[in-house]
Amino acid sequence: MRYTQFFISTLKETPSDAEVISHQLMMRSGMIRKIAAGIYTYMPLGLRSIRKFEQIVREEMNRAGAIELLMPGVQPAELWIESKRWAQYGKELLRFKDRKDNEFCMGPTHEEIITDIARREVKSYRQMPINFYQIQTKFRDEIRPRFGLMRGREFIMKDAYSFDVDSSAADLSYDKMYQAYNRIFERCGLNFRAVEADTGSIGGSASHEFMVLASSGEDAIVSCNACRYAANVEKAEGIKQQQGGAGQQALTKVHTPDKKTIAEVAEFLNIPQSATVKALVLSNGEGKFVMALVRGDHELNELKLKNRLGWDEIQMATDDEILRFTGSPPGFLGPQGLKEELLVVADYTIETMADFVIGANQTDQHYTGANAGRDFQINQIADIRLIGAGDPCPRCSGGTLEVWRGIEVGHVFKLGTKYSNSMNATYLDKDGKEQIIFMGCYGIGIGRTVAASIEQNHDDNGVIWPLPLAPFHCSVVAINAQKDEAVMSAAQDIHDRLEAAGVEVLLDDRDERPGVKFKDHDLIGIPLRIVVGGKNLAEGKVEFKQRVGGEMQLLVPEQAIETVIAQVK
Ligand code: ATP
Ligand code: MG
Ligand code: MG
Ligand code: MG
In its keyword annotation, does this UniProt entry include Amino-acid biosynthesis (predicted)? Predict the structure, then answer.
């Protein structure tokens, strides 16, 4: 591919709304362009990496025996009403009506559609096990889309759904997907962990998340230094709480005056236990921060807080700001990162707890007696977790826990009969008796994984693609391309021979200074590079260099070509 016949549009400046490195580099290298909040165009360069990853996923899904299909993005409400999720799903589900007033949604996931397919098509035990998958565009109206493709509203997901005759057969299907996921992320060269997770709104009995380790990750995970135990922190806390005494102990351990659990604060503020209590980080734009307890409608509460404090403007704090004021890593305490168990209050300008309290929707409960300095330590974040680094492992004796931050790139669930029950998906067994189908579902974020790879592989100059995800394997940079015919024809020849050997090559034939070209290739992150220049060529040599590690080598073209082919194969 000639550079001048392809389309690459790099940026010199980092867009101001790009907080994490992958978002910055994807914008700067021209991989994506923003259309609206959380909605992006995959530009030609970005699309190549996206397609690379899709192909890896496809190969491993096929290898594991899953069968590809493609379901619609638009889904009828009826199916969601049947599964009871129409009422449960909340605002992430984008709903709308057609011209005949029929209700629809943009699919955030496809359990309903695939269960409908299965109940019509899978009628006999002979048809199972079966696993359908697709690579398809999802829509979730995320409350705070951010980090580019990492948390978009429209995003590409690989989702697979397994159907089995009983629970133990479903376990086998689950294991197959678990193995396939390991292979997929290993092939991408990612540093990741599979961790035990909660099942959330998808439902089911067991699940694992695949977490790419990265400081920018929005999830906290723990792993044991002695056994193989690893879990999402929420899940680990759940286990501790179930163990009763242990949970109590952990709570006491971290129960210092400046630290309160959200439940304690909820009680203190007289917010009913039944209410959903969430936390929200706000700033008045002048470096004044408050972490407030809110419940119910976020926007409404934001407005109330604004009025109560008499601030003209309240904005969500950025991760950098949160980091600066709390000393906690971005994401950990950001609005997305604040989980219900995580906890509580900090501010350092406000006088009394009353200032924190935001009323419920109708009954504006207002706590008046409290003093922030006395009842809650000010200027300190109360980061309460039931479980943390150094705690004893809940699985083995002797092991202690380490805490990591991770990006959830994949998630596998044992669904059991949750959807087959509510939607009546049954089959006839050997004896002609009607039985319920057992299901599993398995997701991978395509764009999020590509972004996660950049979080793990970059330097000051740009992206460093691992070969499997690189938009091009090798660039051939022709120096003085538009004027030096000998250079151009040698470069073209190298390009053609590499391409014939199956190497994806970008031939930089632009009329640009060498420095500009090298900068662009570094930014784009192409792993291998051959430079063809007049001086070296006169001596029958070209330069070969890798994006990272390895010195520049002067080689005869034949050798350079062989070196590249050997690396790519
Ligand atoms: P998160 O906890 O990050 O909101 P999720 O648990 O809601 O993700 P799942 O329902 O498990 O997501 O979806 C399967 C996969 O889809 C996730 O593991 C993730 O890789 C990807 N994914 C989910 N939401 C998004 C999003 N908003 N943008 C990009 N990818 C996403
Ligand atoms: Mg989500
Ligand atoms: Mg999740
Ligand atoms: Mg998930």
Answer: no
What pLDDT does residue 236 have?
74
**ipTM score:** 0.99
CB 19 within 8 A of CB 336: no
Q: Left, alpha or beta for 126 (phi > 0: left; psi -120 to 50: alpha)?
A: alpha
Per DSSP, which regions of 295-436 are E strands? 315-316, 401-416, 426-428, 434-436
Give the pLDDT confidence of 521-544 residue by residue, as tens digits.
999 999 999 999 999 999 999 999
With 0-12 / 13-18 / 19 or more C-beta atoms within 10 angstroms meaning exposed / middle / buried, residue 57 is buried
Instruction: Tell me if 140 CB under 6 Å of ligand 1.
Output: yes
Which of 36-40, 303-307, 377-381 is the most confident on average? 36-40
Binding site membership of 148 for ligand 1 (Cβ less than 6 Å): no
Q: Quick one: which ligand is closest to 23's CA?
A: 1
Mean pLDDT over 106-122 rounds to: 98
CA of 152 to the centre of ligand 3 (A): 14
**CA 269 – ligand 4 centroid, Å:** 32
Q: How far is the CA of 311 from the centre of ligand 4 (A)?
A: 37
Q: Give residue 200 CA to ligand 2 midpoint distance, Å.
A: 9
Is the preceding omega at residue 129 within 30 degrees of 0, hence cis? yes
Please provide residue 408's backbone torsions phi and psi, each rounded to the nearest 5 degrees: -75, 105
- pTM metric for this prediction: 0.79
Ligand 1 proximity of 142 Cβ (cutoff 6 Å): yes
Contact 289, 281 (CB under 8 A): yes
CA dihedral angle for residue 209, residue 210, residue 216, residue 221, rounded to 10 degrees: 50
Specify whether the CB–CB gap between 233 and 385 falls below 8 A. yes
* CA–CA distance, 96 with 74 (Å, rounded to integer): 10
Residue type at position 499: E
Q: Which of 378, 377, 364 is nearest to 307 (CA)?
A: 364
Q: How many CA atoms lie within 13 A of 149 on its CB side?
A: 32
DSSP letter for each residue of 461-510: TEE---GGG-S-SEEEEETTTTT-HHHHHHHHHHHHHHHHTT--EEEE--
> Which pLDDT does position 203 carry in this prediction?
62
